[in-house]
Amino acid sequence: MQKRIYQILSIFLFVVVFGCAVLKGQQLWSYLHNIRWKWAVAGLGIYLINYSLRALRINIVSRQRLKIWPSAIHSACLHGVATYFLPFRSGDLTLPVILKSVANIGLTEGGQILLKVRFLDFFTLGLWMLCMSLLTPVLISPLVRLIWFLIALGMSLFPLMTKWLQSLDCLARLSRLKAMKIFENVASFGALEIVVSLGIWMAVASCYFCTARAINLNIGIGDIWFLITIQLPLQLIPVQGFANAGNHEGGWIAGLALLGIPTSEGMNFALASHAVLIVYVLALGVMALLTGKRITMKE
Q1: What single DSSP character describes residue 188?
Q2: Are 210 and 50 in contact, with CB atoms under 8 Å apart?
Q3: Apex 280 CA angle, 278 and 284, nearest 5
Q4: Which stretches in the chain have pLDDT values below 50?
Q5: CA–centroid distance for 271 within its chain
Q6: Closest to 193 in 3D by CA, of 283, 110, 115, 117
Q7: CA distance 160 to 162
């Protein structure tokens, strides 16, 4: 029943966003017609760098079971396309299947790799958010900044909290369970894994910055990190329309509203940036196809 509700909500989100795009078609076309192409191309380049770093991380986390070129690049790009386009937050779960088909990695191990990269994302995003909440001159109220800081602090302390939980006497018996052993493995991070993950988030923020500038939204890098923070809860719920419809718009409209941009204008910027990002993901799909053919030729 709960799954059906999520599906209905995801479809509803897509219909609402599509309807808004149609109603605001003339305004949306105006935003896209006046796009700054140098910023858009720079954003595409950084987007591809982002997925090159994700491929490197898959190579590291899988203990070099996948070579960076073409296997890890193909896996990262294909997973990125699936995560973005598939509804109901189902695309993220395709990584174990992709790793199975590309490198014959078992589904259980593939699931552990997926968990580990998501834990790394959570932890390293927290580190970036912590720095940005303290150092950037974002025009938000002190209360909102405090909440931002506290969320970031909790995320950045994630590895320490897991070690503390494992040390509790009441969990000592659980440590012998297979599930607990798996959790200990995926929640332990190496230095190189952390550095690469920090680079991934820097690429994400830089891509968002270029996208914003491309659609003539002149906000700073600190504002971009704030937008990413606002979008985080929307990425954790199993409700997502086709092509990330609803989640993207909701995060951008809410974040821009807190930054002082009216909701109607925020919707225009959200729709325009979404259109640009869809082009980036389509380019990622082309890369997935090319590397897939390369793998087939090798076989």
Answers
A1: -
A2: no
A3: 110
A4: none
A5: 18
A6: 117
A7: 5
